[in-house]
Design goal:
The protein is an alpha+beta fold and 295 residues long. The protein has a single domain, classed as Double-stranded beta-helix, CATH 3.60.130. Helices cover 23% and strands 22% of the residues. It contains eight helices and 15 strands. The chain has helices at 27-40, 52-59, 103-108, 147-152, 156-162, 171-176, 185-190, 224-238, and strands spanning 4-7, 14-17, 42-45, 86-87, 127-134, 142-146, 166-169, 194-197, 199-201, 208-210, 216-219, 244-247, 254-258, 262-266, 276-282. The strands form four sheets. Strands 1-2-3-13-5-15-4 form a seven-stranded mixed β-sheet, covered by helices on one side. A three-stranded antiparallel β-sheet has the order 12-6-14. A three-stranded antiparallel β-sheet has the order 8-7-11. The radius of gyration is 18 Å and the shape is globular.
Length: 295
């Protein structure tokens, strides 16, 4: 089966056809998808009625699976999925929407902020692959920002200023911005800040991109207020409509994105209705900067 990738009009995103993700990929097909990710940074696959195992098998064509531990506050005994996928739904273990005051629900509201998956890990994620199993009837679009185009649009003075900057990232920064500040000692240790470059260079095509996220809360060498103001200004710049693609989910869509080149967020939706989204995450292979200074 021939893989075809069509660039969506006025967007940086590619739409893939010619693949049935229930079937194993050939080496040639996997290479075409990887090359598509390098070029487009976001790929959309429609009508993919897949199981968790098939989704994970597809993801493993592009690297190792990232462990979910360290990315949420859900205890193992309360986790809904046993397949190893990340649960990005609003559902509890009983399959029903979480109560509005449920701690996990409040924590997960941080996904409505612009972010890059796992930038709070010393080795951040490579790809994310999100499958729509139940689509919420109202809201819940996912927006993606092209951080390469955002970097390119900066003036030369700003590029020179920020090129070597290093930031601290932590889930406590993103959740804290929404007022979620109640953590156990174990969680504080698990969410200890890590260091990430503010400007990343893609390992294949060498294009530079901004590496922003709501998880970023401090710029090394700057006061906290000054650093956060810079990060807010850059995020405001990077999320202008000209850099953003809005994905309106349909049942069995699968969207795959490169966390090294994009930032994303989910929009608010009716939390009383089920939304079942499952993510496979391909682990990164190296840190963006040495971590010793974060200890």
């Amino acid at each position: 089966m021939t893989v075809a990738i069509r660039q969506l009009s006025k967007h940086f995103v590619g739409e893939v056809s010619g693949l049935d993700l229930r079937q194993p990929l050939t080496k040639e097909q996997a290479a075409e998808i990887e090359a598509g990710m390098d070029k487009y940074a976001v790929l959309v696959f429609h009508d993919q009625d897949i199981t968790d195992e098939q989704q994970l098998a597809f993801a493993l064509n592009f690297g190792g699976r990232e462990e979910r531990r360290g990315g949420n506050i859900t205890k193992d005994a309360d986790y809904r999925l046993a397949s190893g996928l990340n649960d990005v739904s609003n559902l509890g273990k009983d399959g029903k929407p979480l109560a509005k005051d449920h701690r996990t629900h409040l924590f997960n509201l941080g996904n409505c902020l612009w972010h890059s998956d796992s930038s709070f890990r010393a080795i951040p994620a490579k790809f994310s692959l999100l499958s729509a199993r139940v689509v919420n009837p109202k809201g819940g679009n996912t927006e993606f920002a092209d951080m390469r185009a955002a970097y390119d649009a900066l003036d030369d003075e700003t590029k020179a200023e920020i090129d070597d900057f290093v930031c601290e990232h932590s889930l406590m920064y993103s959740r804290g911005s929404l007022g979620f500040v109640d953590y156990s000692d174990e969680e504080k240790q698990m969410f200890k800040p890590v260091l990430q470059r503010l400007v990343r260079t893609h390992p294949v095509h060498g294009r530079k991109s901004l590496y922003l996220s709501s998880h970023a809360g401090k710029v090394l060498g700057m006061s906290m207020p000054e650093g956060r103001l810079l990060l807010r200004d850059l995020t405001e710049h990077a999320t202008q409509p000209e850099f953003v693609y809005v994905h309106k989910w349909k049942l069995h869509d699968l969207v795959m994105w490169d966390n090294r080149q994009t930032m994303h967020r989910v929009r608010r939706y009716d939390q009383s209705q089920p939304r079942d989204m499952r993510r496979a995450t391909v682990a990164g292979t190296q840190p963006t900067v040495a971590q010793q200074a974060a200890e």
